[in-house]
Each structure stands twice: as C-alpha cells, then as structure tokens.
Amino acid sequence: MKNKAIVPGTFDPLTTGHLDVVERAAAIFDEVTVAVAVSPEKNGHGTLFNVQERLELISTATQHLENVSAKSFDNLLVAFARDQGTTVLVKGLRAITDFEHEFQMAALNWKMASQVETLFIMASPENMYLSSSAVKEIAGHGGSVKGLVPTCVEEALARKCP
Question: Chain-centre distance of CA 37, in angstroms?
C-alpha cells in the first residue's frame, strides 16, 4: 500500500513557498497530489489564473518530482481525499495567523472525517513572508517576482500583468 498525501490550496499563483512544501512532502510520501481548489471566489475576488492554468503551472514547476501530480477539486477536501484514497493532508504554515486558520480547518476536517490527518510543515525561513496575494500585488504593480515564484509562474505573471 502506497503512502499518499494531498497538498491542498488555491495556488493562485504557485509560489516558491508552496513548491518548498510540495518538495518536502514528496520526500516523505510515496505519492503526493497537489490539490487545486477551484475556488472561483477567494476573499471576495476571483482568481487571476483559471484552474487549468494553475494545474499546468504546477505540473511544469513539479516536473522534477516523479511522485507528484496535480488535480483540481470542487468539493469538500475530505471528500476529495477519500476519493483519492488518501488520509493525509499536508499544509504549510508561515505564521501564527496561518496556524489559527489551519487549526480550525484541521478540526473541522477531523470532525467530518476522523481518518483524515493533517500534517503541518513549517515554512522555510526564506518563505515565511511569502503569499500568493503579495506576489499578485507585486506583479500587478510591475515589480519583479523573481525568486518568489518558479520561473514558469514568473513568465505567466509577466503575460497576465504587463
């Protein structure tokens, strides 16, 4: 039986922080699915990249990881985990504010499906400040996002935010 995990998120866009968590999960688990939430609305705003674009960017950025794949989901995360035969959710944590939200989500997920565990991976120090929202704001104002996102995402942002 394979040891499988899901790294869920909106990934709009994928950052080097997200990629770091995925790479670290890939070193622990036999199979890792990067689960892209369809999330047409996040914080009252639509996504910059549609689901297909996000899946393609993740696939490109993780092509060096043989045990990683990307799939989208539009249902409850625990239902998606069950459908994928996975009982581990891997979440990255940057700060106390992340912990409060993720702690609540982990408790709710456990209440709905107690067989699904949540594993938290602390962000690397160089990624603790990084968020997709900050990356979009920087790119939207013409700033450089080099080193904040994988090269494929940097190029995609340059096309979306000229």
Answer: 9
Helix (H, G, I), strand (E, B) or coil at 146: strand
5's enclosing H/E stretch is: strand 4-9
DSSP string, 32-95: EEEEEE--S-BTTB--SS-HHHHHHHHHHHTTT-TTEEEEEE-S-HHHHHHHHT--EEEEEE-S
Question: Own/partner pairs for 144-150, CB < 8 Å, 24+ apart?
Answer: 147/16, 148/15, 148/16, 149/13, 149/14, 149/15, 149/16, 150/14, 150/16, 150/19, 150/57, 150/60, 150/61
Q: Is 119 helix (H, G, I), strand (E, B) or coil?
A: strand
Amino acid letter, residue 159: R
Q: Could you give the residue numbers annotated as active site?
A: 18, 42, 94, 132
**pLDDT, tens digit (0-9, with 9 covering 90-100), for 16-59:** 999 999 999 999 999 999 999 997 665 556 789 999 999 999 99
> Distance between CA atoms of 38 and 95, rounded to whole angstroms?
25
Digit-coded pLDDT (tens) for 62-79: 999 999 999 999 999 999
